[in-house]
Design brief:
single chain, alpha/beta, Rossmann fold, 3-stranded mixed beta sheet, 13 helices, 12 strands, binds nicotinamide-adenine-dinucleotide, binds 2'deoxy-thymidine-5'-diphospho-alpha-D-glucose
Length: 351
């Protein structure tokens, strides 16, 4: 791999992945980051890398649905591997407005697969990044395995399931060198504050209500984002073509417990809120998400045993690092919250 096309590299996991590859691996080639820069894409998350790595890092502001633009990006930069992160990623938004999810997640993935197929002589790897949500919801017990039948419940997970099926079919039918990963909930630096953990951190810092859906007992399996990035890089190096790998943190927690931990850590690290003994007093139960999946939990034995990957962070270490990162980066937060990074994008990329 000399020229890797990363899609969605200005989003949360994509930005952490590009940072990981440049800073934590011996990769000496170039990364071409193709990103439409939606509300979730923030090039400021990579501004320091763009300076440090010069022409080894290229940002191309394009839509993955645009076949002509994607073909040019692949050819202009002699792309020989693809790591496909770009997606509409937020479940609540998919419930309110599913259109973009179908366009980007399904059609966008199709466009990239088709273009990669047309360049089979040069492109030796297509890694498709997916989610554990495609498997549906678990009861009190059991774990998602790689061969668990798909049962997506939200427009988001249905669109991701569809893209997974396309990626798998392109390997099966055309021999496209596809690898896939299905990962559990990520958290860490640079996550847009619509997702549970950064939303709760920022609201709790400002003394705003902490909206917990339903009874707060839905369970998610949390993984620190750098562990996910390391898993993807491991699969891209050593994974078997046509094979899918579940990635998870063995950190099952009820949402209410996650929010309590955040409150307690913020009381410790940022000091108590004026007039409140504990930030837990901000917790507010609100109406449940429609179709809310009850429990996710991943069995990641395959990637551990076959590829030797294991997560480096526990939830305790990862959440402390994450909170400290948000405390240390008020400018990034201010820009994201106020939307001012959009004007930064426009001035740099002519929006
Ligand atoms: P994100 O919403 O933070 O970022 C998505 C990025 O994709 C943004 O930079 C956005 O601008 C870009 N994008 C969106 N539509 C585009 C388009 N049409 N063309 C080009 N770029 C476009 O998402 P994330 O949380 O970083 O998730 C990345 C991937 O990982 C997604 O495929 C998601 O399904 C998957 N995933 C996420 C999680 C999680 O917990 N966040 C867990 C497992 C898998
Ligand atoms: O499992 C992997 C998936 O994790 C990814 O594929 C998705 O892209 C990612 O968004 C995430 O989906 P979730 O729906 O699990 O994440 P979210 O942060 O939106 O919610 C986590 C849990 O917290 C979920 O049970 C809903 C609940 N929640 C969420 C928000 C935003 C609340 O109780 N209150 C909130 O305000």
């Amino acid at each position: 791999m000399n020229n890797i096309l990363v899609t969605g590299g200005c989003g949360f996991i994509g930005a952490n992945f590009i940072r990981y590859v440049f800073e934590e691996t011996d990769f000496s080639g170039r990364i071409i980051n193709v990103d439409k820069l939606t509300y979730a894409g923030n090039p400021e998350s990579l501004a320091d890398l763009a300076e440090k790595f010069g022409d080894r890092y290229v940002l191309v502001r394009e839509d993955i649905v645009d076949r002509g633009a994607m073909g040019r990006a692949m050819d202009d930069h002699a792309v020989d591997a693809i790591a496909h992160f770009a997606a509409e990623s937020h479940v609540d938004r998919s419930i309110v407005s599913p259109d973009d999810f179908v366009q980007t997640n399904i059609i966008g993935t199709f466009v990239l697969l088709q273009l990669a197929r047309e360049r089979a002589d040069r492109i030796g790897l297509f890694h498709h990044v997916s989610t554990d949500e495609v498997f549906g919801s678990l009861g009190e017990t059991g774990l998602f395995m790689e061969d668990t039948p798909y049962q997506p419940n939200s427009p988001y997970s249905a669109s991701k399931a569809s893209s997974d099926h396309l990626a798998r079919a392109y390997h099966h039918t055309y021999g496209l060198p596809v690898t896939m990963s299905n990962c559990s909930n990520n958290y860490g630096p640079y996550q847009f504050p619509e997702k549970l953990i950064p939303l709760m951190i920022l609201n709790a810092l400002e003394g705003k209500p902490l909206p917990v859906y339903g009874d707060g007992k839905n369970v998610r399996d949390w993984l620190y984002v750098t562990d996910h990035c390391a898993a993807i890089w491991t699969i891209m190096q050593q994974g078997q073509k046509g094979r899918t790998y579940n990635v998870g943190g063995r950190n099952e927690m009820q949402n209410i417990r996650v929010v309590e931990v955040i409150c307690d850590l913020l009381d410790e690290l940022a000091g108590p809120l004026a007039g409140k003994a504990s930030r837990r007093a901000l917790i507010t139960y609100v109406k449940d998400r429609p179709g809310h999946d009850r429990r996710y939990a991943i069995d990641c034995t395959r990637i551990e045993q076959e590829l030797g990957w294991t997560p480096a962070e526990s939830f305790e270490t990862g959440i402390r690092k994450t909170i400290q990162w948000y405390l240390d980066n008020p400018v990034w937060i201010d820009h994201v919250r106020s939307g001012t990074y959009q004007s930064w994008i426009d001035s740099h990329y002519g929006g």
